Structure of Methionine ABC transporter ATP-binding protein:
Amino acid sequence: MSQLLDVRDLQTQFFTRDGVATAVDGVSFTLNRGEILGLVGESGSGKSVTGFSILGLVDPPGRVTGGQILFDGDDLVRGGEPLLRGLRGKRIAMIFQDPMMTLNPVLRIDTQMIETVQAHAPVSRAEARARAEEALVRVGISSPAERLKSYPHQFSGGMRQRVAIAIALLHKPDLIIADEPTTALDVTIQAQILSEVQALCSQSGTALIWITHDLAVVSGLADRLAVMYAGRIIEEGPTAEVIARPRHPYTRGLIDSVPQGKRHGARLAQIPGMTPSLLNLPEGCKFAPRCPRADAACAVEPRLDPSGPGRAVRCHHPHGDSETRVLS
């Protein structure tokens, strides 16, 4: 597989009255055509801002302040809005967690979908409508011809999300950035959507960044995982390897906190404390105040170092391979 996306030392900051918050701090990763990358972490870890930064959707007072985002050889940071305008919706699509960030409440669904098709493809209105109907069927919406005549408020939240996903699939883009898109969907439709995007990636070579906090979903979807904490990638590697043998204490804490058929009444595992404020990050390792393995060495910021074939971890005291985890 050929490389499609190369993010190098990306930094995104928000300039507030209380100080500068670095939401994305030196993030680097690559993505091949047809590959699915899971970007995992708690709320506030920087995973959504990473996705917004790639598409140039960070609003003031935030902005990308450093690094490169190379998409098929073009630097999206240097190219700026003129380059991104021709890519958004056609070659790079985003599925937002809130479907109303995609849908206009005063326009019918057919108007929005047909305009999306014709904005990037020289096709007739009839052909654009046919593509829109096909996309709705792919995300499990029956009677697509009738549904196209509806307004967003006439759909449930889950149905609106399916429409937003269908819009992202219209042009079979080279890259899809999905920001927790199945949160509002029931498990049956969620499974259908996951199957659809996996098929799209394998058949057409579309690359996918799946942003989520749900390890159970991403464990069966992604080829690779990148775990984020306080704006940094703290562990990455093949999904099966990271899930079975997490090296970073934070990754292990995330996996251990997932209910997995424990004895009735048994206390669930949890990560103590809270994600630190980006305006007041601790010195050294950002996870140290919550880490059971922290010691004096953690006063120095660890590097993201290789820890095996295709794997890397940012930790002075990583776990070894002696204990295997199972995520069901």
